[in-house]
Design brief:
Layout: E1 27-32, E2 37-42, E3 55-59, E4 61-63, E5 67-72, E6 78-88, E7 91-97, E8 107-110, E9 115-122, E10 128-134, H1 138-145, E11 171-174, H2 186-194, E12 198-204, E13 227-231, H3 233-244, E14 249-252, H4 254-267, E15 273-277, E16 292-296, H5 303-312, H6 314-326, E17 337-340
Helix pairs in contact: 5-6
Length: 341
């Protein structure tokens, strides 16, 4: 398949700049892979499409406030650092803007000196290996001075940092939110549990590679970024029990989906484990775990719309996206949702 096969027209005004309140009042496009129907609902209606004995699997990763703004010690020049990956302790791989200010050995301070940094290495791809130093806990300091690394298509300032976190976020480490989970409120989750639907968690730390465009025309030539995942014992047990009893395993988001399908591909079963995945799911892939998917609307020609097309069928998804545009759904991270059963 060609990357251009996954293009669709999207008016700029449909790219959501701010989240809706309350979280579960966003719209929900409901797809049924058997009947090929398309329904228009709200996210709080999701409970009507879940059955007793189903299992929701959500990603509990928490987004780092990874954008920090500071000054270069020698010159006072302003810089922006974006933390990408923790290497060890307070050593991180980062993006730096402007890069010419951040040569090896350069020193910077952030938050009036609350955080200090020294560039240890400049990598071939331009990223920097940076050693940070602070008087308090590094993550506590980051929480004070950092800003959320919102996707490039969101241009408005986020007033409340928690609105770019899911209500169940727990494990700190993502550079972007697992956005399908942003629609859940604690009250809605309690109603879902009361219906006899179980909820389990995996952790996949979302990297900025999730926004990387597919630059090759032949989809099969695209190289996926790698992300760290973990499946705890309780989750693995619940997935296997659900399958044995005939219930559905429904992933909340493409990150949960990729975690489950990665583990099933590597081990031919779901078991407690952790590791790195660069699984690339596109039409032709045979799903091993998933029975349903809750997801947002994804960028044209992205690996994520390819994944959703693999699950629901290419023609059906492209029709659904055209319908969503015509009906003026809100798109991308702070946008509306889709449930595919």
């Amino acid at each position: 398949m060609k990357t251009s096969d996954f293009y669709y027209y999207l008016p700029k005004e449909l790219i959501a700049q701010t989240p809706v309140e309350p979280r579960d009042s966003s719209r929900l496009l409901v797809l049924d892979r058997t009947t090929k129907s398309i329904e228009h609902k709200h996210f709080f209606d999701i409970i009507d499409y879940l059955n007793e004995g189903d299992l929701l699997v959500a990603n509990d990763s928490r987004v780092l406030p990874a954008r920090i703004f500071g000054i270069k010690d020698e010159t006072g020049a302003r810089v922006e650092f974006l933390l990408l990956k923790q290497i060890s302790g307070n050593r991180w791989e980062t993006l730096c803007k402007p890069g010419k200010k951040a040569r090896e050995g350069a020193k910077f301070s952030f938050g009036d000196g609350l955080l200090r940094a020294t560039v240890a290495e400049v990598k071939e791809d331009g990223n920097r290996i940076v050693d940070f130093d602070c008087d308090e806990n590094f993550f506590a300091t980051l929480d004070k001075i950092g800003k959320m690394p919102l996707p490039p298509y969101i241009t408005e300032e986020l007033k409340d940092k928690e609105r770019y976190q899911t209500v169940y976020s727990h494990e700190l480490g993502s550079a972007a939110a697992p956005t399908a989970g942003l629609h859940f409120t604690e009250e809605l989750m309690e109603k879902i549990k009361a219906k006899g639907v179980n909820i389990a968690y995996v952790t996949l730390h979302v990297g900025l590679g999730t926004f990387r465009p597919v630059k090759v025309e032949d989809v099969t030539n695209h190289k996926m970024h790698s992300e760290h995942y973990e499946i705890p014992e309780e989750t693995a047990s619940l997935i296997n029990q659900t399958k044995q009893k005939g219930g559905r395993v429904i992933a909340v988001g493409t990150t949960s989906c990729r975690t489950l399908e990665s583990v099933a591909t590597i081990y031919s079963e779901i078991k407690p484990c952790d590791g790195f995945t660069d699984i690339f799911i596109y039409p032709g892939y045979e799903f091993k775990v998933l029975d349903g998917l809750i997801t947002n609307f994804h960028l044209p020609e992205s690996t994520l719309i390819m994944l959703v097309s693999a699950f629901a069928g290419y023609d059906y998804i492209m029709e659904a996206y055209k319908t969503a545009v015509d009906e003026k759904y809100r798109f991308f991270s702070f946008g509306d949702a889709m449930f595919i059963s």
